[in-house]
Structure formats: C-alpha cells, structure tokens
Write a structure and sequence with these properties.
By secondary structure, the protein is mostly helical. The protein has two domains: 210 residues, HUPs (Rossmann fold), CATH 3.40.50; 91 residues, Orthogonal Bundle (Tyrosyl-Transfer RNA Synthetase). The chain contains 14 helices and five strands. The protein has a three-stranded parallel beta sheet. Helix 9 links the parallel strand 4 and strand 5. Helix 8 crosses helix 9. The structure holds tryptophanyl-5'AMP. Tryptophanyl-5'AMP binds next to strand 1, helix 1 and helix 8.
Length: 335
C-alpha cells in the first residue's frame, strides 16, 4: 500500500491512556474515515506518550487493544490506511531524542498541557511530561505529513512542531515538510457535560461520555447535563452566556449534521426537558454500531494482532527513511 499516487499525507494519534470519549470522537476521530480515501493516512496509538502519567500495565494493554478495535469500528479500514502502535516503531523514540535538542526550554515551558498536567500530578512532574511535545513532533515528522487532524487542545503542540521544523530546516536545509494542523470547524473542543467551562476529558468522569458507555449511562449523563439557570430556558447557541447549552447544540450538530439554526428551530418553545434527552438519544444511536463492532473485534485477537503487525511494518519503512536522512544531515556516521 505504498503512496504511489502522490497523495497528500495525513497523520494523527490518540493516547490509549483511558477509554475513548466523545471529545476524541467528535473532535478529530469521526473525520478520519472520510480522509482515508483521499490521503495517504497514518493513524497510531500513542502508547509512549501515556507513561508521562503512571499507568497500570494490564490496564494499558487492555486500553491499547480496545482503542485499536475502536479505530477500526469507527471506519478506519486497515487495508486503506496504516494503523500502528507507536512503541512498535522504535524510530519515534529515536527522533524524539534528536528533536529534544532542537526545542527550547522556554517554548516547552509555555505549553498549556504541561502546565495543566504538572498541576494535576504534582507528585510526578517528570522529564517526559516536559519534553512530550518533542516526541509528538517526531511522531509527526517521521511521516512528512501535509496535515495533522487534531482537536483544538493539540493546536499548540502542532505549532511547536512547526517551530522545530523551521529551526531544523534553517540549519540543515529542507529535511522536514512543514505540517499544517487540521482542526474541524464544529466539535474541535467538546466541553464537559457537568462543567461546561472545562473541556471534556476523563479527568472529569461525570461529565465525560465514553464511546463504549451503555445507552442507559449515556442517557443519564445527558439528562443531568448542566444547562443554565436562565428563566427563558430556550435552546439558543450562545457559548458566552449559555456554555452548557451551546456545548449540547454542538454535540447534536456533530452527530446529526444539522446546522445550529435548524436545531434552534427544531426545539423552539420546547425547552431543555425535550432537548437534553434528544441529544442523548442521537449520541446513543451514533455510538451504538461503534460499540457493537468494537466488542466484536475485541474477540478476534488474531485479527487485531495482524493489523498492528502489518501497520508497524509499513510505518517503520517510512519512518526509517526519514530517520536515516536526519542522522545523515546531523553528521552521524551511516551504518
Ligand atoms: P489525546 O489522546 O489527549 O486526544 C486525542 C485527540 O482528541 C482530541 N480531543 C478533543 N477534541 C475535542 N474536544 C475534546 N474535549 C477533546 N479532548 C481531546 C485531541 O485534540 C486529540 O486530537 N498528544 C496527543 C496525541 C498525539 C498526537 C501525536 C496527535 C501524540 N502524537 C501526533 C497528533 C499527531 C494527545 O495527547 O491527544
């Protein structure tokens, strides 16, 4: 499956640090299956990144297999794109080290995610947490992608990667292609259902809907979603004054394809009592086939193993080519 047609290249990854949630799905993942026809796509499971926070080994293994199954269940056909596990392609860690030496302490210190995570895990502010964007830059640059589809919270890391490209190419010539972040217009920042001023993440479990949640749990989470105390209780897209309602409208728009105006018209005069369960129902129906297919695939371990082995082989081939070029430019002796 070599890129013989000179298609543009696209790459992205998700950490198997917990179960996939609706933010991961609506932000980047749901757009990926459409891209595999048009682009030469690499999608990986960013397991090296997860250990910046302590992981329970058995849980990490389970989550990685579940994420792989969910990638396929969401429509990433392994025959049409390269699916692999990051730690299977050793070039990521190698290029990550090199890029550490081309990222500045000051720019790494400005990363919002580093500030957030180091505040949250004060007992474990390790070096990996700090240099994580260099490994992410390596993930990207090994495959020389044109686009990197991510949610809004990863934009800063892709920008840092672009700074590294500029610095590196400035010294050694055109080694890396400049990647562009590719961020969806709707859904790039899904907020927590119970704390709509924080992004949806597994660190706020009550406001987080997981892709494999049971329908009754999804329904319950949406019924309890925070809206506002506004007496008019009207379904109107106003993120500043009604962030909870705006978030639900965004979710509903993402899963139904309806515009904000159509949604406002649909619920005119109906209030939140009708709106919240309708959003829950639409999400349940979107996620149902993904959950069922993930569960089915998880029973076929041999198939999943063949997918990640083939994926690693294809990814390593491309990654090695870039790494050799980088080593040569830097001045390392070739083997
Ligand atoms: P991660 O695993 O935290 O999240 C995976 C993807 O989901 C997006 N996302 C969201 N989008 C909308 N609303 C939300 N509430 C929300 N929460 C998460 C993220 O923006 C991301 O696109 N560092 C990355 C993984 C990574 C990577 C890469 C991505 C490692 N190397 C190279 C692209 C390219 C991360 O931790 O994402």
């Amino acid at each position: 499956m070599e890129n013989t047609e000179n298609k543009k290249v696209m790459l992205s990854g998700i950490q198997p640090s917990g179960a996939l949630h609706l933010g991961n799905y609506l932000g980047p993942l749901r757009h990926w299956p459409k891209m595999i026809e048009e682009f030469d796509c690499y999608f990986f499971l960013a397991d090296l990144h997860t250990i910046t926070v302590r992981q329970e080994p058995a849980a990490l293994r389970q989550q990685t297999m579940t994420l792989l199954a969910s990638y396929i269940a969401c429509g990433l056909d392994p025959e049409k794109c390269t699916l692999f596990i990051q730690s299977h392609v050793h070039q990521h860690a190698e290029l990550g080290w090199v890029l550490n030496c081309y990222a500045m302490f000051g720019e790494l210190s400005r990363m919002t995610q580093f500030k957030d995570k180091s505040a949250k895990h004060q007992e474990n502010v390790n070096g990996g947490l700090f240099t994580y964007p260099c490994l992410m830059a390596a993930d990207i640059l090994l495959y020389q992608p044109d686009f990197v589809p991510v949610g809004e919270d990863q934009r800063q890391h892709v920008e840092l990667c672009r700074n590294i490209v500029q610095r590196f190419n400035g010294i050694y010539g055109e080694v890396f292609k400049m990647p562009e972040p590719y961020i969806a217009k709707v859904g790039a920042r899904i907020m927590s259902l119970n704390m709509p001023d924080s992004k949806m993440s597994k660190s706020i479990p009550d406001g987080c809907v997981y892709l494999l949640d049971k329908p009754e749990d999804i329904a319950r989470k949406f019924k309890r979603a925070v809206t506002d105390s506004d007496t008019e209780r009207c379904v109107r897209y106003d993120p500043e004054n009604k962030p909870g309602v705006a978030n639900l409208i965004t979710i509903y728009a993402s899963v139904t394809g309806k515009s904000y105006g159509e949604i406002e018209a649909e619920f005119e005069g109906k209030g939140y009592g009708a709106f919240k369960p309708a959003v829950g129902e639409a999400v349940i129906e979107t996620l149902r086939p993904i959950r069922e297919e993930t569960e089915r695939l998880l029973k076929d371990r041999a198939y999943l193993e063949s997918v990640y082995r083939n994926g690693a082989e294809r990814a390593s081939y491309v990654a090695e080519r870039t790494l050799r070029k980088v080593y040569k430019k830097i001045g390392f002796i070739q083997k």
